[in-house]
Amino acid sequence: MTPNTETNEQLFARAQRVIPGGVNSPVRAFKAVGGTPRFVKRAQGAYFWDVEGQRYIDYIGSWGPMILGHGHHGVVQAVQAAVLEGFSYGAPTAREVDLAEAILRLVPSMDMVRLVSSGTEAAMSALRLARGVTGRHKLIKFEGCYHGHADALLVKAGSGLATFGNPTSAGVPPEVVQHTLVLEYNNIAQLEEAFALYGKELACVVIEPIAGNMNFVRASVAFMQRCRELCTEHGALLAFDEVMTGCRVALGSAQSLYAKAIPGFEPDMTIMGKVIGGGMPLAAFGAKRAVMEHLAPMGPVYQAGTLSGNPVATACGLATLAEISKPGFFDGLARKSRTLVDGLAQAAREAGVPFSGDCEGGMFGFFLLEQLPQNYAQVMKSDGARFNKLFHGMLERGIYFAPALYEAGFVSAAHSDADIAETIEAARAVFKTL
User: Would you give the DSSP letter of residue 233?
Assistant: First the structure.
C-alpha cells in the first residue's frame, strides 16, 4: 500500500464523487461549521493525526466509545487475539455470554440483554419489544433527543400536544410516525397532560437521561421522577437511551446517578452502545426477564442480526469494561472533565464571551449562553456563528471539538493534564477573537 500524499481537500473532493456528501455519517461533513473535514490517518491515546500529518487533541473519541483513548494496549491485545480466532461465525460464542454478564453486573436494572451491532438497531428493537409487551402502539419521545435513524424515531414536534409528530426525514411516511408524540424535555406539565390524554395507549416513554444531541442537557431529577411515576401508573415502559451515557457518565451509567437521587429508581428498559463495544460496532438493549422473554426465539417479538455478538467486537467490549471497572477510574475521568469545563468557562469570562458548561464522568458540553439550557428551544438560542469561529480557531490550534454546535464532547482516560491545559490556553486565545 503506497503512502497517502493527498490533502484533506483533495480527499474530500474524491469522496464527494462517490459517497453522498463525501461522508458516511452527516455530521462529519463539517456542513454545520463550514470548511473541509479532516481525514484521519491514525490515532493513539488522546490524539489523532490527519492525512496531512497535523496532530489534534481529540474530544470526540469516535463520538463516545473511546473512553480509554485510542489504541489502549490491553484492548488492542484482546482484539488481536480474537481476530486470529476468527472474524465472525454466525453461531454463539462464550464471549457473548461473558459480555452480557459483565453488562448486567454494571447495570442491574436489567436481567437479560440482547446484543446487536448499533445504537439505532438497539433503540429500534427496544421500541418494537415495548409495543409487543404492552400491546400498545403509541410512544413518547422528547424534542432534541436522538435515538438513531429508525423511521418511527425520526420525528419532530407537532403543532400542539394533541398533534402527533411530523417526519424529520424525507422517505418517512407520516403514518409511520402517527403514533409518536414529541414533548418538550424537562416539561413536567406537558408530560402530565400527555399521559392524561393518551395514558392507556402508550407503550413507552423513551428518553436520553442526559441528552447528548442537544450538546449536554440533563433531565432534572423532578422530571425523571415524574416520568417514572406516570409510566408505572399507566402501565407504560420507561426506556432509557444510554447509548451515549452508558458506562460513560458513571460506571453504572446515568441511571445509577438518578437512583442516588430517587429512592428505588430504575428504568424498565435500557438501550446501550458506544463504550460497551470499546470502538467496535456493538450495542445492546435489555430489561427484566419478563419483558425480554417476549423476544424471539422465546416469544413473538422478532429481532435478529447476522453480526450480533460479533466475536471481535465482544472481545473489545470486554477488555474495555474491565479497564473502566478498576477502582478510581471514573473519579479521575470526572476530574479531567471538570477541569476542562471550568477552564473553558474562565477563559470565556476573561474575554467577555457568554458561556455555560456542564459535565458528568467523561462527557461534557458547553453553550455560548449565560445559563445552561433545559430544553431544545433554549439550546437553539446558543450563538451558532460565534461557535463556528470558536471551532475553527481551536481546530487551527490542534484541538478537535465536535464540528457542530449541538453535540456533546468526550474526555478519555488518555487525556493528560497537559492536554487539558493546552486546550484551555488555546481557548483563551480564541475567545479573545470572538
Answer: H
Calpha distance 289→109 (Å, rounded): 10
351: helix, coil or strand?
helix
Residues with Cβ within 8 Å of 260's Cβ and at least 6 positions away in sequence, in order, are none
- What local confidence, expressed as pLDDT, does residue 1 receive? 41
- C-alpha 395/C-alpha 132 separation (Å) is 47
Q: Reduced to 3 DSSP states, what percent helix, strand and coil does the chain have, rounded to the nearest 5?
A: 40, 20, 40
Three cell numbers, residue 140: 413518547
Counting residues of the chain whose pLDDT is more than 90, the rounded percentage is 90
Residue 153's H or E segment, with its range, is none
For 132, the enclosing helix (H) or strand (E) is helix 119-134
To which residue does cell 395514558 refer? 199
CA 422 – CA 418 distance, rounded (Å): 6
Active-site annotation, residues: 146, 241, 274
Would you mind telling me the total number of residues written for the chain in this entry?
434
Residue 315 pLDDT greater than 50, yes or no: yes
